[in-house]
Write a structure and sequence with these properties.
about 60% helix, about 475 residues, 3 domains, 4-stranded antiparallel β-sheet, Rhopdopsin 7-helix transmembrane proteins, alpha+beta
Length: about 475
């Protein structure tokens, strides 16, 4: 009896499993949903070294299991496979769009078929030219054909040597176009502010000759390139035919951004004067970041990618410390720099957490950093303006002191000239008096000798000699 019950239970489990495979993964579309987040509807399978054909993969559907709630996955040298079934019911709906809202996937294979028809394949990713995209969009977006009452099957193969995130969204075409219009406005404002500030600081540098302006311009420019590449825009507009450049752009620009940010902090926070230990530390960290940028340029991002999140977190935590020290010591530009740092922190932490697979990609994890950076850049411009005012004040004080010193020197020179003239006059008088006394003494002596001679010889002296002797 127990054997019969066991057999019945096993049969029931097998039937339920088969039923789940046949119907449980089907997503029903009624035509009213503008967008559908697909994470809870996905099945997934972690691949292995073997290059697997789509037919062989689906021949054993039992290897697929329900995908986890998070759409971020651990780094792996092997591919991930994702599986989805759609069943449309709206007779007017012929196509939807599948968006993968993450641009840093090295290799991406998309397969779709309607019913038992042929498989349609699209091979793309940031290691392939932009022309390989199914739709010309910064994110990988694929056409999903639909036929009312017929299951559309989708398989996605994902492989990358950096962070792996697969945030999949199924869009109605009109809703997707409207969403992109909103993104276009946000990106236009943010990138416009950043680029304007880059050129503004470059134009100011020849006037003020302050290296802080060059480092600030490099920081803003590299950050703009980082976000531009992370959004997938650089691959579309800057180097669509150079996938190796697109693959390196995000990581390379981020290392340069951190190096420039550290150097800018050294100058704006006067670390050499107010915090010498941090000055040496920041100099070493910026040199290390530039070295890592060189490694990325030569070897690709995967080589040093594990170092990027902890280093970025370290930089985020360290930068405000010397600014606070300088502010406490009365250096006012550090006040604006410290306030400007605050809008960047949430976005930086979100990016680090997303890179470490701690949070899922979202609108805020994608765009909070650039919004905060735009606000931060404006506040940092105030810090630099305050720095200019302080430099002008110091220059004015120095010029006033120099002018006063010149005036004092001129007065001293005039006084010295008068004293010199007086000394020369006194010396001439003394010499004249000495000469007069010496000649007078000689004449008196001569007069006495002549008078003695006169008495002895009893002769008269000339009147002129007598008069000269008496005057002496």
């Amino acid at each position: 009896m127990s054997t019969i019950k066991t057999s019945l239970w096993l049969s029931l489990i097998i039937l339920l499993s088969c039923y789940r495979i046949a119907t449980g993964a089907v997503l029903h579309l009624d035509g009213t949903q503008d967008r559908i987040d697909l994470q809870e509807h996905l099945e997934w399978f972690a691949g292995d070294k073997a290059e697997m054909d789509i037919i062989d993969l689906l021949a054993n559907e039992g290897r697929f299991e329900k995908a986890p709630k998070r759409n971020s996955y651990s780094r792996s040298p092997y591919p991930y496979w994702f599986h989805l079934r759609l069943l449309p019911h709206d007779p007017l709906e012929k196509q939807r769009l599948l968006e993968l809202a993450y641009t840093q996937i090295d290799r991406l294979e998309y397969y779709s078929r309607v019913g038992k028809g042929p498989w349609r394949q699209v091979s793309t990713g940031d290691k392939r030219p932009f022309a390989s995209r199914d739709i010309r969009h910064p994110h990988p977006v694929f056409r999903v054909p639909l036929q009312p009452g017929v299951v559309t099957e989708i398989v996605l193969r994902v492989q990358s040597n950096t962070s792996i995130m697969v945030p999949l969204t199924l869009w109605r075409e009109d809703a997707f176009a409207s969403y992109n219009q909103d993104l276009l406005l946000i990106n236009g404002i943010s990138y416009g502010v950043l680029l304007a500030l880059v050129f503004y600081n470059l134009f100011l540098y020849p006037t003020v000759r302050d290296p802080a302006y060059l480092w600030f311009a490099l920081y803003l420019g590299s950050f703009a390139l980082f976000q531009f590449s992370l959004d997938g825009l650089s691959a579309r507009y800057l180097w669509p035919q150079w996938p190796e450049v697109a693959d390196r752009a995000v990581t390379l620009s981020l290392w340069i951004c951190m190096a420039a940010g550290l150097k800018f902090t050294q100058h704006i926070g006067h670390t050499r004067r107010y915090s010498p230990k941090f000055d040496r530390l920041f100099g070493g960290l910026s040199l290390f970041a530039l070295l890592m940028a060189g490694v990325v340029a030569l070897r690709g991002p995967g080589t040093v990618f594990p170092l990027l999140p902890p280093f970025g977190l370290l930089v985020v935590l360290l930068i405000p410390v010397p600014l606070w020290i300088a502010w406490r010591n009365g250096y006012l530009p550090a006040r604006f720099a410290l306030l400007a740092y605050l809008p960047v922190v949430p976005g930086a932490l979100l990016i680090a957490a997303r890179t470490l697979n701690r949070v899922e990609p979202s609108f805020w994890s994608e765009h909070l950093f650039i919004i905060g950076a735009a606000l931060s850049s404006i506040l940092l411009s105030f810090a630099l303006a305050d720095r200019i005012n302080i430099m002008r004040t110091r220059q004015a004080v120095t010029q006033a002191k120099l002018l006063e010193s010149e005036r004092a020197a001129s007065r001293a020179q005039q006084k010295f000239s008068r004293q010199l003239l007086e000394a020369q006059d006194n010396e001439r008088r003394r010499i004249a008096a000495d000469l007069h006394d010496s000649v007078g003494q000689n004449l008196s002596f001569l007069h006495n000798m002549l008078k003695r001679f006169q008495r002895q010889k009893k002769v008269a002296l000339p009147a002129a000699i007598n008069e000269a002797a008496q005057n002496a």
